[in-house]
Amino acid sequence: MQKKFVLVIFILLINSIVAQNPDKQIQSTVSKIYNFNFEKADSELDAFSVRYPNDHRGYYYKSMMNLWFFLGSLNEAYKDSFDLYSEKAKNILEKNTSEKQSEIIKKLFWLGMIEYNKSVASARANDFASAILSLKNMRNRLEEAIRLNPEFYDAYLPIGLSNFAFAEVPAALKWAANLVGFNSDKDLGLEYLQLVADKGSILKTDALFYLSQIYSRVIIEHQEADKILSKLIKTFPKNLLFNYSSAWIKYELNDLNSSEKILRNILSSNDKIFSYVISNSHLLLANIFFAKEQYDSAMVHYNLFRDNRVNNDYSGLANLRTGICYELLGNRNQAIKFYEKSDEGNKDLDEDIYAEKLGKLFASKPINDDFKFILHIKNLIKQKKLKDAEELLKDVFTENKFSNRVKSESYLLLSDIYLMNKKFEDALDQALQSIKLNSLKDNTLAANSYYNAALALVNLNRENEAIDYLEKIDQTDDFDFQTTLKNKAYTLRRKIVKASD
């Protein structure tokens, strides 16, 4: 009886889309996918494939959903399903022998998209050889589609992403990519992404999201990323990935309360599939409490991050900060246990590299007053209490208890505050004072001071002088958070070039 009931419901679902155009039906279903209504989308895709057995899109979007699930959880079962539905979609496409140019272009595009998705799945599974081979196949198909119709804009997105991505990969992987004829061009990649965001149809949402990630992580323009994500969330309010990305941006913009509100909504969803988003939401919420100096609450969420994490990304940072929380709350013995685990993170991430370095130091000797002072100032800045931070920093230079190293960093933090307040002459003066007082030649302080000086100079229309300081960053090595600072320097160079055109 129950089976008959299910069959009747399934038939009714099929009949409900009979009168609809398949393009409109698939667009409606894809909107549900982007809005994280996966159960409804899944049943609609099954019905779509029954109704239109020669249309690959039912299976393609099933594969895409399972790819998302795999990326969000690293559960191999989802990768198996992704492979299965990708193959079904590919088989249908390859049976299409139409000689109409429009059909050939569509076939090339969708086959290229399948290869692109395979490359993403392989890279996430650390199978880089397969990822590169799939990317090569993707480029061959999509470049041919573009040759046949340069205005088929969606085809530019995966090519643009691969251009951008391979400009960022380690040298060893670039060498492997060069073997199969890959080039990398950040600027061209960004141009292609913007093109699809402006003129694409099938992949417009994807292009906008990827742009937001590039603006937030590589081309450091957080305000632009925030605008894009706000629009995406307005259209797809239940998309956890869009929401998490928005929370991360607001944290970077020092809007802690807005970030916290979004994160609490994500965590209240009780999502069971996207464990990566859930664990990172706990981590970001912990960082917010850390910045607010609510250390008990921070530790709760660092623990929840560890309980839910799917890999070792940011584990070093979480352990380091848990240790700092314990020590600042007076429990040095417990703190040491976490300092000793600060090497458990991902050695490719700046945050985890820094955590291991600092964890070793704090395991051997207690946190000193200098560190506590600088941490408090940084937390005040994160809370947007800029006036309080400025007053405390100015006191540093009238007291003898602080070392030149702390004074140098204090000048740098003052420079940060003046940049936020758009007082560019003052920001430049403080950056130069930091450089002058950096007698120990601390590379991290030096590189960040060079950047602040360059940023102030650009805003003062003194671009040639700014370039000199950017070159000093290139000549500096072995400093903390190199990737982030070099990306900021790259963004500043782009602005200088644009201004001169």
Structure description:
This protein has 501 residues and is mostly helical. It has 2 domains: 253 residues, Alpha Horseshoe (Serine Threonine Protein Phosphatase 5, Tetratricopeptide repeat), CATH 1.25.40.10; 117 residues, Serine Threonine Protein Phosphatase 5, Tetratricopeptide repeat (Alpha Horseshoe). The protein is 77% helix and 0% strand. It is built from 26 helices and no strands. The longest helix is centred in the N-terminal third of the chain and has 24 residues. The termini are far apart.
Distance between the termini: 73 Å
At the fourth level of CATH, the homologous superfamily of the largest domain is Tetratricopeptide repeat domain
Q: Count every beta strand, where a strand is a DSSP E run of 2 or more residues.
A: 0
Q: Order of SSEs, N→C?
A: HHHHHHHHHHHHHHHHHHHHHHHHHH
Tell me the CATH architecture of the largest domain: Alpha Horseshoe
Show unreliable segments. 1-19, 170-176
How helix-rich are the residues, as a percent range? over 70%
CATH topology heading of the largest domain: Serine Threonine Protein Phosphatase 5, Tetratricopeptide repeat
Query: Briefly, what CATH class of the largest domain?
Result: Mainly Alpha
